[in-house]
Fold Inner spore coat protein H.
Amino acid sequence: MRRIAILAIALFLLTGLAAPGRAQDVDIFEQDGVRDVQLSINGRDLAQLRATASENTYYPADFEYRGIKVRNVGIRSRGLGSRNATKLGLRVDFNRYTTGKLFAGHKALVLDNLWQDGSLVRERIAMALYERLGVPTPREVFVRVFINGDYEGLYTITEELDSQFLTRIGNDDGVLFEYKYVGVWHGEDLGSDSGAYVPLFEARTHEKQAQQTLYAPLRDLFTASSDASGEAWRARVESLVDLHQLLAYLAVETFTADNDGLLGAWGMNNFYVHRGADGTQHQIVPWDKDQSFGDVDAGIFLRVEENVLIRQALSFPDLRAYYLEKLQKCAEIAAGDGWLAAQVEASAALVDAAAAQDARKQFGEATRAETLSALHAFAVDRPSRVLAQIEAARATQ
């Protein structure tokens, strides 16, 4: 027994975990208060990380959360519009320097700096609604982040969308892509070369597969969605994308008046695509929803005509009816027992102290109060306004 104990301790020392038998038992996403993440990094490396925040260079660090320390992880700056040197958005890669190292079953986690959201709670609430509607959704939990003992601010730990995520949602060994915004695009056919889709869809699993294997089904999807119409269109497109799942996703995005999503004001943005290992059919996963809960009067068909795939899908009466049904479900969930308003109130109360002490956040306390007030008003008023639009849309069918 003594020899086994010694071997166990040696194994955990080699893998960089501070204590045996604990890390895999940690529930990262249990929100029992706002807990602390402690990062320790060489001072010169931290200065360089801030100075080159636009780059993806990794630096060694120690990570500690819920009493578990993981030594020698890799951290780097992350984000697009949220990337900055003042309040670092970070990716934590447990596997960077020691192959096979995990923390509670995760190779990596995202520390989202909540930079673009004056309320600091929008994304977490939006993701809760996606989850309630049955859309595969990354998990999140509010935390306070400290770097070398200094308070960096209020963050969320966000589940990395990778092979572990696919396993959790029952799509083991599937293919996962992150949509990368490179300019305005509404899903138009980019031609016969599957390579045209490589800059737009970054493979996050099976990265070493041949380009044709990875990207030909995506090319086929957007070629088919731009080609012809009617039942021939539907048969071909429905073999390549789960249209019902797509419209359920879109219903949440529409209800939350997300200005920077699949039907964003600047083209498509902020989503992942996954494809089952045993087929060609794609599904959509939400990501980066800090622009949700915008215009309370946003139309339920806003920008539908701009997107090739969505425009064609909603031309089918049964799919249009399904979309309206899911929109209605969103409104009913939000209004039922004041669920959405209660989410706003509870989240704001939960993070209040940590947010008030966050001196690195982009927007001050006055803006946070104003944004939370507007968010609460949205939660109260949006359901009835969406239901009224649904009623008018059904009257025209």
User: Anything to note?
Assistant: Residues 2-163 form one domain.
